[in-house]
Structure formats: structure tokens, C-alpha cells
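Run: sequence + zinc ion -> complex structure.
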Amino acid sequence: MGQKSLTNRSMDNRPLDILNTVFGYPGFRGQQAEIVDHIVRGGDALVLMPTGGGKSLCYQIPALIRHGLGIVVSPLIALMRDQVQSLQQVGVKAEFLNSALSPNEARDVEAAIAAGTLDLLYVAPERATRESFIALADRIPLALIAIDEAHCVSQWGHDFRPEYLALDMLHSRFPNVPRVALTATADGPTRREIALRLGLEQAREFIDGFDRPNIRYRIAVQGDARRQLLGLLQAHEGESGIVYCHTRRRVEETATWLRGRGYEALAYHAGLDARLRSENQQQFILGEGVIVVATVAFGMGIDKPNVRFVAHLNLPRSLEAYYQETGRAGRDGLPADAWMSYGLQDVITLRGLMQQSQAGERVKRVEQQKLESMLGYCESTRCRRQVLLEYFGESIHEPCGNCDTCLDPPDTWDGTEAARKGLSCVYRTGQRFGVGHLVDVLRGKDTDRVRRFAHDRTSTFGVGRDLNDAEWRAVFRQLIASGMLAIDPEGFGGLRLTGRARPVLRGEQALTLRKELLSTPRKAEKKRSAAREPLADSDRPLWEALREKRMELARKQGVPPYVIFNDATLLAMVRLRPVDLADLATITGVGAVRLERYGETFLDVIGEHPSSISGA
Ligand code: ADP
Ligand code: ZN
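>> structure
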């Protein structure tokens, strides 16, 4: 088994053939063609691609070409179901084997495996390493073994799954079967850990850029968070999205409030019972226009391609988390929004939580650094995408043109003097007070605290009357972001100077600060920048009709609408208005089986909506 039977040239076009006829896509993206070719020839691979990059095809196509069954290890039932349903739609014989199946169903799948009638089998890691499964797999030829979400093997990551550690045994049991591990996790240490723990040190690495050009990054300073959120939602009427909050209570409150405003908003957090959680998740996947308000517990295993926005109502704890969470938007490559609103209190809260955690000092230090990078990203005056990608060791030369700083360049001002005043105030008051009190002192306010500590007698009392409260808070945020001030680890928000503050205090270093976040925090929103309307008004009725038809078909089959056709395909139908099956077949995402199953139905809908020739 696993012999390289396909090395002759005549086979070279098979991957493209399958891509065209089965999946209905005109061409490979990025490194897909190379990866497919490498695996088809029996090579091992480690594939790193951003979310939505198209990892699945990298093993699905080789599994169809190589002789035998393709085994795909996947960590979550929802992921497996989604993939299998999509494959079945295009006529591929795929099944999954996990705890969601009844014993009878599982037996049927096992019988199909033994009979050699399946192309692809998705299986949970604990089952893949079970002796009974190995014995079954041993009796049939295997095309390949794919390990999806391979970063689950990393003990340092958020998604660690102990069962993944046992997967290296598949290698010793099936030494001649090509293996491919896939992940969207960017960083080098995790990559090396994957290779090491899965015995893939010799595998060829395919590393794609991590940019998600269709995602628009925007950040606002917390003002009226709800009003800000509504602004975002208005640009996404009828679309699906995720709203992340720090706490369960905030999740519940926000979901309830959104429902009160007429949105279909569902809560998701670890405190809900498992049944309700999975119901809400299902509704999100199967529905259209559902908003999930969630803690970070939500998202892993959500493959829904048409999530149009991800909102953060609090600061995530690291850029890794931010990147992963925002990455759930726009997997289909269509425009999507990643929007965040945050305040200094978030930093203080996170700092406190990190300190209280049971983790060792080293881990805490790393977490603290990650939080600082996160804050630095928020306060940066540079292109968001450039800062984000640089953090992951990549770079783009030009500003992206699709983030708030690019679209609405922030004004800057010479904050050297203000910074000196702020830093001196921290020093004069004993390096233990939080921003609220420091601002009171700077602005010369007569408060109980000021009097109690005799801070009206310090040299910095009242020296900052030229700035208002919000402006001072922005100055302090930027001083913290640039590492000149550190927040006490206890979570009370007390600030102290670091070594980096010295040059500014001594007048040796000038500081440029960001103004836009400072005085007109909502300027960026005025442009309604999310409104990159992909559709003309005259096309709306057809778009809605196609979506309705898709939903009707999906309901009948109990599958998510996007496995029938994804949004990009429907959009192409609206734009091209195909008149017959041959026309329709040229559209991306329309393969042979879908064409046969749904072609006439969708052509009928299109026929009922002739395009307006008047060109009005
Ligand atoms: P990932 O697993 O990397 O997040 P997927 O494999 O789910 O991404 O692919 C994301 C989306 O892109 C899917 O809807 C998929 O069908 C589509 N896609 C993948 N490769 C291509 C391609 N070559 N042409 C067009 N669409 C593609
Ligand atoms: Zn940019």
C-alpha cells in the first residue's frame, strides 16, 4: 500500500481535473497545487496556511487520486460533520466516525471501510489510535493520513488535546502511508513542536503567508460600547457574526440586549449546559443572520465560511488570540470586518487575572509580554496589518489600505511634554496609583484622595489642565503600550515607571502620540467603512431569492446552507446571470454533481429575475 503509482507524467493533470469537475473551482490557490502534487507522489507534508486558505483540498484531492482510503484526524465533531456534508454534496464518498454516531451507524461506517467503498474517513483522534480501528485500517489500502488542526498537539497552545500526542503511533503502524499535518497556527515554536511530536521532522514544509486581505481591521476606544456595536451591526444587516466578551455575565447581558433590538442573538459560554451550547452553535451554523455573543470558549471547530464580522468588546489577551478569533471572519474570501472596542480597564483586568493564575513565573512573564504587544498593536499609528504580520514574523511592504489607520490615518501630535508630566506625576505620587487618580492630580482636581495623600502639594498637581480626562487617559494608555509604565500585577491598576521612561523624563527623547483615538474616537466610524457593498440595489432581489432557495434546500437535507453553494458562488450567479447549464458550470464552486443536483433549480430562480437592461 502507499506505493507511488502515480509518478508518470500522464497523471499530472488529474489534480486540476478533479478541482474543476468535482469541486467546480477554476484553479488552485497559493501552494495548493504543489502540496497536492507532493502528497500524491507519496511525500509527507506539514502545511501552514491561514484560515480560509484552502487546506482541506490539499488532502482531499490526493485522497481521491491515490489508491485506498484517506483518513483524516479531526479534533471536533462539528468540523467533521461540516466537511463530510460538503464532500457528500460534491459526490465524494465521505463519512465520519466519532461519538456522535449510534453504535449501528458506526457499524455501517466500519462496514463501508472494510468494503473499500469510501474515499475519505474523518475520525476523532482517540478513535484513530484505538487498536480496533488500527486493525480495521490494517486490512485495507490507505491513500494517506491527514492530521487536521495539528497545533492541538502543542501543550503550550490553547487548543491542546492530549489524544493528539498518541497520533505519532500511526506513523509506526503505517510507515508507508504519506502523512500530512495541517494548521493555521503561525508561530515557529508551535510548528517545530508539531513536527517533533508527530514525527514529521523529515516532512516537507509548506508555509503560506498569514495575511487575510479580505478582513478589515478596526479598533475603537471604549466609549459607549453598545452604541458602537450597533454601528457595526447596521452595516451587517441579515449577516452572521460573532461578538466576543470577557465574561459570561457580559455575554448574557449583551445577547439579551441585542435580542431586544430585534437581532437573532444567541449566547455561548462555558457556563451554559452542554445541550444549549450545542443547540446555539447549530443554529449559528444552520441559520443565516445569526449573531453569537460568546466568550473565547466559542469558535474552535466553526468552519462557517460566511461569518461577516467578528467584534471584540474587550481586549483579547494576546495577538495570537486576536488573530485566531478575528480569523473566523470571512473564510470564504469575501469582505469581512474585525472590529474591536477596548479600554484601559481591560488591560488592568487581564493583568490581574494573569497574576492570579496558577501558572509559573515564566509563563506569567510571557503572558504579560503578549498583553503588551496586544496593547501596542491597538495604540500603534501604523497600518494594523503591517503590525500584525510583523508580529508573526512576516512583512508587507505597503500599508494595506484595508484597516482603520490606512483608511482614516490618525493625526499625531508631539506628546513629549504631556508624557513628561504624566511620568513625573507617577513618580511624585509614589508609583502606586491608577490612571483615574493620576489624571485627577494632573488636572488639579480637589478630591478626597488628593487631599488624603496630600497630592495637591506635589509639583505635578494641576500641571495638566490643558488636556481633558479622555485625552490624559489616552496619553497613559500609550505610555503603557510603549512600555514606559507598567501596571501593578495585583490588578488594582497602579502604575510604576520602567527603565524605558528615563529618556523621556530626562528630555532626551521626543514622543509622537496618536490623536485620533484621543479626541475624536469615532471619526473612523463615520465613513461606514464596512459598507463595501458587494451588490447593487437592483441585484438585491435575486440575491435574496437565491439565498432563500439555498436555505430551503439546506433545510430539507438538514445541512448548513453554505454546503449547497457558498456565498461567493451565489454572488457570481447574481453577477453573471447564467442562462443555461453550460453557463452555470463555468461559475466557481459549481462542479458536476452540484450542477446536476441543483443547476435547473437555481437557473429557474435566476430566470425569474431578469437583469434590468435600462441600466438605471
Ligand atoms: P481552511 O481549512 O484552510 O480554513 P478551507 O479548506 O475550508 O480552508 O477552504 C476555505 C474556502 O475556500 C472553502 O469554501 C473552499 O471551498 C474554498 N477554496 C479552497 N480552495 C479553493 C480554490 N482553489 N478555489 C476556490 N475556492 C477554494
Ligand atoms: Zn492598513
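>> summary
DSSP finds 29 helices and 17 strands in the chain. The first helix runs from residue 14 to 23.
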